[in-house]
Amino acid sequence: MRSIVLGVCSSFFFAFTFVLNRSMELSGGSWLWSASLRYFFMLPFLFFIVIWRKKWIALWEEMKRNPSQWLLWGTIGFGLFYAPICFAGAYGPGWLIAATWQITILSGSLLVPLFYEEIKTTNGSIKVRGQIPFKGLCMSLIIIIGVGVMQYEHATQLSIKPVLLSIIPVIIASFAYPLGNRKMMALCEGRLDVFQRVLGMTLGSLPFWITLSIFALSTTGLPSKTQTVQSFLVAICSGLIATLLFFQATNLVQHNMAKLAAVEATQSIQVLFALFGEILFLSAPLPTPISLIGMVLVVGGMVLHSYVSRTDQLEVTPSDTSKQFS
Length: 326
What we know:
The protein is mainly α. The chain has one domain. The chain is 79% helix and 4% strand. The protein is built from 14 helices and 2 strands; from the N terminus they run ααααααββαααααααα. It has helices at residues 2-26, 31-52, 56-65, 67-89, 94-101, 104-110, 134-155, 160-188, 194-220, 225-252, 257-265, 270-281, 289-314, 318-325, and strands spanning 116-121, 124-129. Strands 1-2 form a two-stranded antiparallel sheet. Strand 1 (116-121) and strand 2 (124-129) form a beta hairpin.
């Protein structure tokens, strides 16, 4: 239950990303700066936290052991996650980006076979390749249907080009984020805490952000004061608070792929937070009764997903695991 609560809290702070990115786009800011500034602002805060906790030496030794892995999965988990999100924000409203982002619930479940999970038996612990949680996948579809219902009226008002340019990049991001996160957890094997891992992935993605900022400088010039301030807020709310909460939630259940998928399912509530944020700060229209039905489906699907994932894990027995090896 603690991991689910942390997941919900992280979704609240993640929602700031969609609202503020849309605000920056409406004010004429470049998505290139919106993406790179967030991680530049995150870096000194993360350094301070890790050094203050006297964990920098351990992180540095870990990164020296596998520098290419940190570079690869940091770039995928952070770079190919956030850059497409910001790009999509240039072509669609925040609510549409937040709604499309919920595909990560399905993406996370589909990635399960790429990893191993630890199963406790009477003879000790064994590792088996994860299996797609089909029951949880069905509950995820309820969430996706709820998102579709909630946004149907708005989506029909858009032309095909902005819809595609806002959907395709987010689909890419939906696979990149959980893939990078899980790969780094598997690489670290519990040797690093959440703060160390986030800092390490940020450092690993730094070459990507530097390249992006150089391109932004050559094409659009320096960012405006407004965009800089809003990017700083995104860095604090989403980059630091939300990411650390989410990574802590996934750390609690990192050896249980069913519960891990349930934690990732809590991110569906971002749609509600983003919608309310746009209503309050960007004067978006109030939700219609149809949208309210969609919200109920989203929350209900999340609850059912968590329940099914938990009961699936309870059904695993030593005899079941032996069958998986035959």
